[in-house]
Amino acid sequence: MSRNRDVRASEVVAVTRTHPDWPTQLTKRLGSEAPATLKVLGNVGLLRNRKVALFCSARASGDAILRAHDVARRMRDEGTTVISGFHSPIEKECLRILLRGKQPIIVCPGRAIEAMRIPPDYRTAYSVGRLLFLSPFAKQPKRVTKESALRRNEFVAAMADEYYVAYVAPGSRTERIVGMLKQWNVEGFSVH
Fold this sequence. Notes:
192 residues; alpha/beta; Rossmann fold
């Protein structure tokens, strides 16, 4: 892979509801709001794995950061498939820890993925088939917006078999996502 290799639209695959790897919980949890098509780049078979969603509010305490690092190391060492937008600072730190392991990772950008570049730090995991880029967005937006980030987080929550929230700021969007997860009876293993 070249250093600044662009992803070509031909490499991004559309997964529809008739695909054998379609995550049925999306339709159950999101109903009519569920996307009809997912855009994927990478090992689509990772969608069959049991997935732990990772969330964290943008600002968090030092204790929350240390706990999140410990949990990320544990998930890495246990081979847990982690799904997240990996957007907040703590989520990004957790991704750095996870990329050093061998477990599957599903990255859900808050935008369309047809024109994205695979960051250099991700390329090894991608090339061995343990990294999947997954988006509910077709061709728009090309950049993350507040609305697309919220929709992405709802999508990640709907994909989850279990979740971990490193920190929930009172009144935050993360708090709203945790409420959705609880409504769907998704098991959380730590909320701070």
